[in-house]
Amino acid sequence: VSEKKEFDITGMTCAACATRIEKGLNKLDGVNKATVNLALESATVEYNPSLIDTQDITKRVEKLGYGAISKE
Ligand code: 9UX
After folding, report:
1. Which element (helix H / strand E) includes 64?
2. Does domain 3-70 bear CATH number 3.40.50.300?
């Protein structure tokens, strides 16, 4: 099972920020694929909803020092 959600990401100032978030999210158990778009200030995350939810994803991003808001 894979759910796909978009998030608004705040606080990114360079390309390495996007990479950091991408790596951090992809390390999360339950994340199948995470991509971060610096220019659009957004993230697309495919995850297994039986393992994690949007709040877990948001919290991970915050732990890395950025902001995340689930669109929808
Ligand atoms: Mo770029 Mo982001 O030097 O935390 S990695 S600002």
Report:
1. none
2. no
